[in-house]
Amino acid sequence: MDLADLPTCTRCTLSLTRQRVVVGSGLESAILMIVGEAPGKSEDEGGAPFIGRSGRLLFQLVHEELGLERGQCFVTNVVKCRPPANRTPRPVEIASCRPWLDEQLARCSPRVILALGNTAAKSVFGFDAGIGLTHGRVVAMGTCRGMATYHPAAALRGGPSVVDVMRSDLRVLKELLSEK
Ligand code: URA
Questions:
Q1: What is the pTM of this model?
Q2: What is the CATH number of the domain that holds 33?
Q3: Average pLDDT per run of 10 along the chain, which is 180 residues long?
Q4: Residue 77 CB–ligand 1 contact under 6 Å
Q5: How far is the CA of 42 from the centre of ligand 1 (A)?
Q6: Which pLDDT belongs to residue 142?
Q7: How many CA atoms within 13 Å lie on the side-chain side of 36?
Q8: Burial class (CB in 10 A: 0-12, 13-18, 19+), 103
Q9: CA of 2 to the centre of ligand 1 (A)
């Protein structure tokens, strides 16, 4: 699949309701790839991932704990088009979009993948249990390693205790980034 075709993708019915395909943003050769669930309203309008409230919290934490700026990571979502009313993407939508994510993973070849929330953790790492049990767990994925943490939207809802867990997960991830 050619990523040049992604902005006009019609592989699933989310293409009927989206404003823009949110491909991804950042550095293609990044050592860290961050994968969220799906674009929200701001992202659907703006065409880039995590540019709303969740994104501001996410990149504040990434900056404070990892010392990385947004542009030093590659950021994308499991599903590239906004689900109506921000519902959770359906399995058929996730499956339709998967080849694009696989192509991005192959192109970026990051050292570490960070999945945000249940949908991304399940889809990227195959975790069956919820994020409450799987966050912070380090998994090997071919040449790179992965970890899931809470979605920043959950931290916005859940408050400081969720933010604290995200921070401690990111500290473990920092070790992974610094290992050879
Ligand atoms: N939530 C996500 O999962 N991804 C975005 O890009 C924005 C909000």
A1: 0.97
A2: 3.40.470.10
A3: 96 98 96 98 97 97 98 98 98 98 96 98 96 97 94 96 98 92
A4: yes
A5: 9
A6: 85
A7: 29
A8: middle
A9: 23
- Distance, in Å, from the CA atom of 73 to the CA atom of 26, rounded to the nearest integer, reads 6
Domain extent at residue 53? 3-178
Instruction: Give the position of tokens 């920043």.
Output: 152
Q: Identify the DSSP state of 29.
A: T
Q: How many domains does the structure of the chain reveal?
A: 1
50, 80, 81: residue to mutate for ligand 1 pocket, most atoms within 8 A of CB: 50
- Which structure tokens are listed for 163? 């933010």
Alpha-carbon distance 165 to 172, whole Å? 11
Is the minimum distance from the CB of 37 to ligand 1 under 6 angstroms? Answer: yes
Q: How far apart are the first and last CA of the chain?
A: 31
Query: What's the CA-to-centroid distance between 14 and ligand 1, angstroms?
Result: 15
* CA–CA gap between residue 6 and residue 60 (Å, rounded): 29
